[in-house]
Amino acid sequence: MFGFSLSKLLFTIAVVLVVWYGFKMVGRLDRKRKAQARKPARRVSNPAPAEAAAGDAEDMIACAVCGTYVSSLGARSCGRDDCPYPG
User: pTM here?
Assistant: First the structure.
């Protein structure tokens, strides 16, 4: 009933090896995922403001003089004398 045979022994060894290498593969994938999450984001040649870099949306408002849309947080003058925004 509980006799050892070569086929039972080989099957048990095969199951142990599959489980062992399965755990190693899962651990390796987890380490890669964590290392990739720790990597800093790629730098862009024209970096965006800190608000936009964080992934938040930024409100835009239309200039009353020229009609172009400018950032509501850091609006700058368009160069016209009657522009309502500072420098």
Answer: 0.40
User: pLDDT (tens digit, 9 = 90+) per residue, 27-82?
Assistant: 999 999 998 888 776 655 555 555 445 567 778 888 877 887 877 777 777 777 77
Q: Which two tokens stand for residue 36?
A: 């990739």
3-state secondary structure of 70: strand
Q: Which residues contact 78 (CB under 8 A, 6 or more apart)?
A: 63, 65, 66, 68, 70, 85
Burial class of residue 51 in the structure, from the number of CB atoms within 10 Å of its CB (0-12 exposed, 13-18 middle, 19+ buried): middle
Alpha helices (runs of H) in 39-69, residue ranges in sequence order: 50-53
